[in-house]
Amino acid sequence: MNIKECKIEIRNTIQAYLKKDEFGAYMIPVKHQRPILLMGPPGIGKTAIMEQIARECEIGLVSYTITHHTRQSAIGLPKIEQRSFQGLEYTVTDYTMSEIIASVFEKMENTGLKEGILFLDEINCVSETLAPTMLQFLQNKTFGNHSIPEGWIVVGAGNPPEYNRSVREFDIVTLDRVKRIELIEDYNVWKEYAYIQKLHGSILSYLEIKKNNFYIIEMSVDGKQFVTARGWEDLSQILYAYEVLHLPVTEEVVRGYLQHPKIAKDFANYYELYLKYRQDYQVQDILDGKAELHLKRQLRTAGFDERLSVLSLLLDRLSCDFYESYQMGEYLKRLHATLKEVKEYFANAYMEPEVIMTDIITQKEKELADKKLAGLLDRTQGQVLNKLILKLYYFKEQILLNRLKENDHAFSYIKAEFDAMVEDYQNKITTTSNSLENSFIFLEETFGESQELVVFLTELTGNFYSMKFIGEHGSEHYVKHNQSLLFSDTKQELLNEIEELKQLS
Question: Which InterPro entries does this chain map to (predicted)?
Fold first, then answer.
């Protein structure tokens, strides 16, 4: 299954394992909660989906790459103890708690999360001395003399033999005690994730032209050459940073992430073209509805790669606007909920406004620290909470500067500030909506009802942030073209069916 299907299956399994009956006991007894064994190629996102699942289920996550461990760190160190058997004293060997098991208990103590996932990566690549210990763990969920606590689900991940020479095959006894899931790479599914993570537009544009270069692992006379999903994501981060710093992105820079010389060179060349198209085609003018006629003529006669690149530039800019609108909306929702708390405090507490604000700031800072420690914040949630705390500090500062000693006066000031922020948000929505409609108009005037418009529409549909925006604020052109596309597809299906019937008669 692909990474999306895999995530759904693992999440469903974990929810089933953690479901309790009316007596508070797990519906599926712990001994029947099979460890999940996730097998798939490296760099495809196995660790990332475990982090997402833990956040969505609001449970803990302890993650280890097991190849970094020795037998001693996995099962604990031996120690000598005295024990009595049938009235006689004996010296016996016991073991300290496994570092891995101890980490689970520490996670529980530090976060208050009593349930979670113990994720062990590269589980089938352990050393010869550790292999029996791992088999025992998968079969009995114990390291040495210590078991993982109830409510913690074991998920192991490994690479198939074709990707790693040191892979060890599990025997039937072990495989009969795990829930095995086979994972394969899938560009179209990964692209959905890439939009959410806001990967660089040049990467999405390049892979749309050359999908076969998304994931490759092959042997050559110079050794292994490979490109993985992880490589593209990390390359995206460095591209953004280099652009901010105005540093050149050379082929050597790209090779650090795409460890396949031919693909690295190909992308580096494409990236230069992408920058050229960004300069030649004034995207902001298109979004503002001010595109000049010669640009439309130039694009109409351009090659396929160039047309697709310009589409990607448009989508990339729109995607940034959609994301900013989404983030502003989430921030204002969270701020509004917090200001309701502030209003209640001001109405009922007999303290000065700045003292009340200090108490609320302390609460929010603790919430941020706790959620960060527990791993329950994604990037957007973390940014929203950080911005919220900064805004609360700003409100407190303004209360002090303006010497607002009365609670009702202080809240009136805060409300006025919030109303201005809501107005800014509405202006952002209006600007983004206009940019989207102007993009459709530009493409209609340049290409008419063509394949380029279909590509544009399809990419909008596959982007989480664009669909969130269109779903909440609408788009006349999107609805019109989407209905037209659906009608066209239905008409084509009917024509195909008629043609089949003709052939049968």
Answer: AAA+_ATPase, ATPase_AAA_core, P-loop_NTPase
CA separation for the pair 185, 216 (Å, rounded) = 10
Q: Quote helix, strand, coil % in the chain, to nearest 5.
A: 65, 10, 25
Q: How far apart are the first and last CA of the chain?
A: 39
SS3 call for 78: strand
By CB atoms closer than 10 A (0-12, 13-18, 19+), residue 40 is: buried
Question: How far apart are alpha carbons 104 and 127 in whole angstroms?
Answer: 23
Question: Which alpha helices (DSSP H) does 124-260 contain, by range?
Answer: 131-140, 172-175, 187-196, 201-209, 229-245, 251-255
| 82 class by beta-carbon count within 10 Å (0-12 exposed, 13-18 middle, 19+ buried) | exposed
The Cα–Cα gap between 426 and 430 comes to: 6
From residue 404, alpha-carbon distances to 351, 360, 399, 421 in Å are 12, 17, 5, 21
User: Mind listing the domains of the chain with CATH numbers?
Assistant: 3-70+103-184 (3.40.50.300), 185-280 (no CATH), 323-430 (no CATH)
* Nearest alpha-carbon partner for 458 in 315, 282, 322: 315
Helical axes 476-504 vs 451-462, angle rounded to 10°: 110
Tell me the per-residue pLDDT of 432-476, one tens digit each, with 9 for 90 and over.
999 999 999 999 999 887 788 888 888 898 889 999 999 999 999
| pLDDT at position 11 | 92
Tell me which DSSP letter residue 398 carries. H
pLDDT tier at 170, thresholds 50, 70, 90 = confident
**Which tokens hold the place of 309?**
């690149």
Q: Are 208 and 475 in contact (CB under 8 A)?
A: no
Encoded amino acid at 55, one letter:
R
Place of tokens 């006379």: 221
Give the range with max mean pLDDT: 42-46, 188-192, 242-246, 290-294. 242-246
The sheet carrying 36-39 orders its strands as 60-65, 116-121, 152-158, 36-39, 179-182
Phi-psi group of 43: left, alpha or beta (phi > 0 → left; psi -120 to 50 → alpha; rest → beta): left
Reported confidence tier of residue 69, pLDDT bands at 50, 70, 90: low
Residue 231 main-chain phi, psi, to 5 deg: -60, -45
- Non-local CB neighbours of 463 within 8 Å, separated by 6+ positions: 195, 315, 319, 322
* Cα–Cα dist 232/226, whole Å: 11
Tally the residues of the chain.
505
Mean pLDDT lowest among 50-59, 65-74, 287-296: 65-74
The tens digit of pLDDT for each residue in 122-161 reads 887 777 777 777 777 877 788 777 888 899 999 988 887 7
Which residue is associated with the tokens 């039937």?
172
Task: Please give the pLDDT value at position 490.
Answer: 46
